[in-house]
Design goal:
637 residues, alpha/beta, Amino acid/polyamine transporter I, Rossmann fold, seven-stranded mixed sheet, 60% helix, elongated
């Protein structure tokens, strides 16, 4: 007895009457499947890249804001970083609860869809899309900034370098080459070891080991400024919150972990939060210890590496490790956004083409859409990471807030043991992230954040418009209703021809096999240069005598498709009970480049018939082999 699962049902919820869950066969299957899932360590390497990479631009964003208050303002780098670290701790604790409550993954989109309704879920999805797109642009620009800090000669060509990196990542994803967690372990470990080593060495230094990187670069520090107001601190906090992006990535991919998946994912979340917090606080301590001043064209991280390790091989290890990790962090979006777009397409909120997969299980259209938008952002920003970072954290905090509010409703509904404490934690997180979202939006509004404020509702409205369009299409098609029983109707096949050849013979063979009646039609023109060809076709047709009438359709213009479409429409009006099919024969060259030699007559006719009639269009592909000619079977176009 077979079990049929309905769309949207989860296989693990279906009873298995044939085999108990604890049988040796089931255990063997689970063990084999676990080999393709993540351990906690592998999960840290595969899912933390976005968050880890944010240490390359998070502290710099804080410093650039505080630099407006001069050297006195830079003294507040550590307090602002400690506030961000506290918010990070709350988020990590909250997402541990999300992992436990939603072991099937989905993050803020799944939570909002389950507890806040469809509209809130679409807002969460829009915020995730903006986050994924900006993550690509920010990661690529930050990685290239690390490269140009080590090799200043490339600074003038940074936009082209950014686009080249983006093309490389896109090409890899289009081929379906998915970097495994084992491949991520090495660059992640090198990056973490380099940053932590730099922090430890720097804390034991009384003065910078080197300032070669910053020499000759103009300082962006404001002079004669001593006051630090609440607005400046809030703006620095908002800018530094860009370091919190990617904290939700583990909760989105819980099913990717080995059993027990929730426990392993929770360990990964805690490890991610601890490492990220230590690195952020350690870097802020070094900024204060070395009295670092931001300069144009050199990243803060590069200056810290120079000051802590000296301008030697260790400095270049930090720069290259940062660049590689940032590139891999961009690749995270290429793995996440196309999947999210596929889910939205399945729910009829995006065109269904985004739900299609290529042979290598790649959402190719989603990958290309992400690359196109990211390329536009790179060109718009001029390859400057500081132009993009102000746009980054808004969508993230919208998703954070919706997720926490949804979790409060979740605990209120299930009322499991300790639900009040869990709801209080998520409620506290919702307040913090909600306030942070307001602060980030308000302080960055004039820096370009208005684009995100505008894009978020526009995306939601676009989702709704696509959903309404699919609803109308479904109603017109009668989806969900049992149609009438099929019945046979008299069929008439119209075959457009322009000359007599083996292609014409194969087309008529297919036509008489498909229809009860076949009519061959040809478009003729009154111009003197066209009359000999028309007379020759008429004469050859009479000599051939295939048993199918040839009807000439005179045309006053040079149009080919419109006269055939008009004739088919006239036939349909006079014979409404007849099913009319237009069979268009086309030669398919043996080589791709030879398609440039074709006149595209078949495509023109197909377009005209599709646009002006309701006839069935059948395009016969007649394949031309390199050593001969072989006919192909007709297929519906």
């Amino acid at each position: 007895m077979s079990t049929v699962s309905q769309p949207g049902s989860r296989p693990e919820e279906l009873p298995d009457a044939e085999e108990p869950p604890d049988t040796p066969a089931r255990a063997t299957t689970d063990a084999a499947g676990d080999r393709h899932r993540l351990t906690a360590l592998q999960g840290l390497a595969a899912l933390s890249l976005d968050a880890m990479a944010s240490v390359a631009y998070g502290p710099e964003s804080i410093v650039l804001v505080l630099a407006a208050a001069g050297a006195y303002g830079l003294g507040f780098t550590l307090p602002v970083t400690l506030a961000i670290a506290a918010l990070l701790a709350v988020l990590v604790a909250s997402y541990r609860q999300v992992i436990a409550a939603f072991p099937n993954g989905g993050g803020s989109y799944a939570v909002a869809k389950a507890h806040l309704g469809r509209r809130a879920a679409l807002v969460a999805a829009a915020s995730l899309i903006l986050d994924y797109v900006l993550n690509v642009a920010v990661s690529v620009t930050a990685g290239v900034a690390a490269l140009t800090s080590a090799f200043p000669a490339l600074y003038g060509d940074r936009v082209w370098v950014c686009l080249a990196v983006l093309v490389l990542i896109t090409a890899i994803n289009l081929r379906g080459i998915v970097d495994s967690a084992k491949a991520f372990l090495v660059p992640t470990a090198v990056f973490i070891a380099a940053i932590l080593g730099m922090i430890v060495v720097g804390l034991f230094r009384d003065a910078p080991a080197s300032t070669v990187t910053a020499d000759g670069h103009a300082s962006v520090l404001a002079h004669n400024a001593t006051s630090v107001g609440a607005l400046l601190l809030l703006k620095a906090f908002a800018s530094g919150c860009s370091a919190l992006t990617g904290v939700e990535a583990v909760a989105n991919a819980v099913p990717s972990f080995r059993a027990p998946a929730p426990k392993r994912a929770q360990r990964t979340e805690v490890a991610l939060g601890a490492l990220l917090g230590v690195m952020l606080i350690g870097l802020s301590l070094l900024i204060g210890r070395f009295h670092l001043q931001p300069v144009e064209g050199v990243t803060v991280l590069a200056q810290l590496a120079d000051a802590s390790l000296g301008h030697n091989w260790a400095f270049y290890v930090v720069q290259f490790a940062t660049m590689v990790l940032l590139a891999l962090a961009a690749n995270t979006s290429f793995g996440g956004l196309p999947v999210l777009m596929g889910l939205l397409a399945r729910d009829n909120h995006l065109p269904h083409v985004f739900g299609l997969k290529a042979d290598r299980q790649v959402h190719r259209h989603g990958v290309l859409a992400l690359a196109a938008v990211a390329a536009a952002l790179l060109v718009f920003s001029g390859g400057d990471v500081n132009t993009l970072v102000p746009l980054f954290a808004i969508g993230v905090f919208v998703g954070f807030t919706l997720c926490q509010v949804g979790m409060v409703r979740h605990w209120y509904g299930v009322r499991s043991r300790g639900w009040r404490a869990k709801a209080a934690l998520n409620g506290f997180g919702a307040v913090l992230t909600g306030v942070s979202a307001v602060i980030v939006t308000a302080t960055k509004l004039t820096d370009g954040a208005w684009l995100i404020v505008l894009a978020l509702p526009v995306l939601v409205l676009a989702f709704e418009a696509v959903h309404r369009a699919y609803a109308r299409i479904g109603e017109r098609l009668g989806l969900g209703r049992v149609p009438e029983a099929p019945h046979a109707a008299r069929s008439l096949v119209v075959v457009p021809v322009s000359h007599l050849s083996l292609l014409t013979s194969e087309a008529l063979n297919a036509a008489v096999s498909l229809g009860d009646e076949v009519i061959a039609v040809t478009v003729t023109h009154d111009d003197p240069e066209d009359r000999p060809a028309a007379d020759a076709l008429r004469r050859d047709w009479e000599l051939w005598n295939p048993g199918v009438d040839l009807l000439e359709l005179p045309s006053r213009t040079r149009s080919v498709g419109r006269p055939i479409a008009d004739y088919v429409r006239t036939l349909a009006a006079h014979r409404p009970a007849t099913r009319i099919t237009v069979l268009i024969p086309e030669a398919e060259p043996a080589h791709l480049w030879q398609r440039l030699l074709q006149n595209q007559r078949g495509a023109v006719v197909a377009h005209a018939v599709r646009r002006h009639t309701d006839a069935v269009i059948c395009r016969l592909r007649f394949r031309l082999e390199a050593e001969g000619v072989r006919g192909g079977a007709p297929r519906v176009g």
